What does this fold into?
Amino acid sequence: MNHSASNSVFPSCFMAADINLIMTALRFSAERHKDQRRKDVEASPYINHPIQVAEILWRIGEVHDITTLIAALLHDTLEDTETTADELEAHFGLEIRTVVEEVSDDKSLCAAERKRLQIEHAASISLQAKWVKLADKICNVYDITHNAPPRNWSQERKHAYLDWSDCVVAGLRGSNAKLEAYYAQIVNTGRERLKLSS
It folds into this structure.
């Protein structure tokens, strides 16, 4: 599939098989994340997060590419569940497996190294992976600063996350103007909210 690095999108006329695959991915992700919770005070169900990432892609980024939307629903399954890459490929194909692998950290590495590698690799991942990564960062920054901040995170830790997120997003620039503009809006208002609450 030939992807432009512009703000281009894909046709939204899905076939029945595409919708079926989205539903399968949603159920698969829900099952794999069923015992997981987000770090906010209410311990929200984890599945809310991949759904939000897919929604941001569709609604804000106007990304209507089936591979990207399914990868968004599955983007944390390799990193945060017992799901294997071979399992993803068996269910959803090589292209989706590859995008999910591109946005997944190697959990055998320490947190600092994982963060460094996200910055280092951001510019070289595929366009589809860049879209998922951008939407993921939008959701995380919004949760930390607006919606559902992690329990026991200090102001300093929140600011540090935003600074690191900016470094990752710098490598994703040029992939989707609407997502990039929305990220800038969320992170800027987030910094103002943190400043007012400190």
